[in-house]
Amino acid sequence: MGDTVVRVENLGKRYRIGERQAPYKTLREALHRATAKPWRVARSLWGRGDGEARQDEIWALRGVSFEVKRGEVVGIIGRNGAGKSTLLKILSRITEPTEGCADLYGRVGSFLEVGAGFHPELTGRENVFLNGAILGMKKAEIERKFDEIVAFAEIDRFIDTPVKHYSSGMHVRLAFAVAAHMEPEILMVDEVLAVGDLAFQKKCIGKMGDVARGGRTVLFVSHNMVATAGLCDWGIVLDGGHVACTGSISDAISYYTAQSSSPEEAAASIDDVDRNGFQLLHHLGRAQIECRTPIRFTFEIACPFAVRNATAGIILSDAFDNPVLGTSSKLQQVHGSAASKRWQVTCDLGNVPLNSGFYHVSVSFGDEYRDHARFERAISFVVLPGDPFGFGLKVPRRWGHFYWSADWGIAAVDEPRPSSSR
Question: In terms of CATH, what superfamily is 264-399?
Answer without folding.
Answer: abc- transporter (atp binding component) like domain (2.70.50.60)
